[in-house]
Amino acid sequence: MKKIFLIFSFLLLIYMMWPGPSSINQFNALPDSEKSKLEGDTVQIPNVAAYFSNNFRNFVVPFYSDNYQNLVKLPLPPLKLNHPPEFSWTAIKRHTDTTYLEELVYPLRDSLYVNGFEPFEETGDPKYWGATKFEIGSSVWFTKTTLRFYPSLVWVKVVTWLGIILSTALLYRMGRAILK
Amino acid sequence: MIVRLEKFLFWLIIFLFAFIPLYPKFPLLNVAGTFVAVRLEDVFIALAYLVWGAYLLLSKQIGIFLKDKLNRALMLFFFVGLVSLFSANFLTHTTLLPLSLLHWIRRLEFMMLLPLVVTVIKTKKQLVICLLTLSAVVLLVNIYALGQQYLHWPVISTTNSEFSKGLILSLSPGARVNSTFAGHYDLAVFLAMVLVLISTLFFALNRKFKIFSLGLGLLSFWVLIMTAARLSFVAAFAGIFGSLVLLKKFKFILLLAMIMLGVLIYPSQLRDRLISTVTVNIFGQGERYKGQTEDQRIRSKLNIPTLAIKTSSESAETSIFATGSAGIASDITPGEPIDTTQLGVYRSFSIRLNLEWPRAITAFLKNPFLGTGYSSLGIATDNDFLRSLGEVGMLGTAVFILIFIEIIKKIVRLLRENDKFLRYFSIGTLSLILAFVINGLFIDVFEASKVASLFWMIVGLNLSVRNFK
């Protein structure tokens, strides 16, 4: 049992310390898109980027999933979690317009939130009353994608790893004492 | 000095047994970002812990305290909670430090009442005084509930952020009594616990106390029906059934079944809600609201509260779903039942199924070892086990389960007790745990301050039997 525990601890440490992106700027821009320069999408909030484009959810989320995996270089893609759209006010920033919010996460490492605002269906039909396209300069776009990346610091990962290992060891001892 | 401290602590425990359930939930100190407030009872509990800490040190019981497996499991639970708190604040960024700390301290506050009571209660006489105090409290709680229903006595509620500021309200037509518990569910959980204990101890009491406990039981049962809390009703019956089986009083199980049948036949809000649970939530029956405009139908499918709502100064056609006339709820959306009882039952289930439970599962997936931290799931999950997995992950949940295993093992050992009253009390506590855990499937009972505190104190009371001189 000790050997299994040591192997598990070692593998977990390698997984948690494995290098990955540390900034939103390392992620690719959406293809055929225009980067938002609106306030709140640039430097006001750390690790936020936004793109106007004609890319819809079916394309955007797998695109960033692949991009994230390529940056991390782990054999498995990030876990995809679907959140209620209104959670974007917490995860991205207050007053974020939204029609979907997904999180790409490598558990115990970092998270990339992908928030999409799609006032129109892919067919061009409006989704709700008041739907408008995005007019940026001379261009008109159907969707806005906002990304927020939550990186984690090395010392935080080390302390969390120590906490998990110590808790697991104590839990094992406690379990044996109580269940015997 | 030590004897004085012991006595002081005993009377402090008696005081807490009365004060926690009886004092209305008036806030003492509001905490930013939540409508959970610090209240007077927290101050008294903190005082009890201070005195208890001094007592443990002076009486040199700290060593014995730390050797006990249950206490060590509790310490481990708080340690895992701290690790989870660290990871939630600095790794997953899913909580705010003050809020998560507040919720961690709340767990500590409620659960440490168990070892506090275990160390302080040392004789059967002290235990009986505690139970008599509790009986008087139950009587007062029930009388106050009836006063709210029939005499318009004040209602203090924490069911929303505005009410929780300590507003003094009165019961509106169709609303359910909460007595001093600030929420009808909390009152129902308390009564379910009480009913299980009374129905067990009834068989161990002399004739005079039997009549008193029967009266108290019937009164509590009446108020439980008035709360119309379906799950607590089922939990109370499951708990009583469990105790009757353990007591080998099989004939009484038939009586219990007849009472249950009677509740299902006799017209009440509880009966209507129980029936609607089956017809609306399981069979999807009931007339549904179709919506007045196309925009309403589209919006109800999209269901994103942050999107703009259609309003018009020229036409009455807006996205507001109903006007509140003709008995239809003003916030009804297409697809929901029109009948208000059915609507309440429908929402009660769908909010769990579509929002709270998936949120907890998502949190668990995000960090399976440690969850996303205390307070990360908002104020409620309405399933304590999913909440535990979501907030403190596998590690925290595993320790929590170990705590229960150890408690149950200790109580089972007490079933060999020669004293009939103490033996029956242990059976009652085991059944109470069953009822509490069933309640935990749909309500966050371990986080509801009043009922959680009382639960750990009653369990502590039972475990203190091991120390009786």
Short summary:
The complex is a heterodimer of chains A (180) and B (469). Chain A is an alpha+beta fold and 180 residues long. In chain A, 34% of the residues lie in helices and 22% in strands.
Question: Which properties best describe this structure?
Answer:
heterodimer; A: 180 residues; alpha+beta; 6-stranded antiparallel sheet; two-stranded antiparallel sheet; 8 strands; B: 469 residues; mainly alpha; 17 helices; 65% helix
List strands and helices in order, with pairings.
The complex is a heterodimer of chains A (180) and B (469).
Chain A: H1 2-17, E1 34-35, E2 48-53, H2 57-72, E3 79-83, H3 88-91, E4 100-105, E5 111-117, E6 134-136, E7 139-141, E8 143-150, H4 154-179
Antiparallel strand pairs in A: 1-2, 2-8, 3-4, 4-5, 5-8, 6-7
Chain B: H1 2-22, E1 27-30, E2 37-39, H2 40-58, H3 62-67, H4 69-90, H5 97-111, H6 113-120, H7 124-150, H8 184-201, H9 207-227, H10 230-247, H11 250-265, H12 269-282, H13 294-302, H14 340-366, H15 384-414, H16 420-439, H17 449-463
Antiparallel strand pairs in B: 1-2
Helix pairs in contact in B: 1-2, 1-7, 4-5, 4-15, 5-17, 6-17, 7-9, 8-9, 8-10, 8-16, 8-17, 10-11, 10-16, 12-14, 14-15, 15-16, 16-17
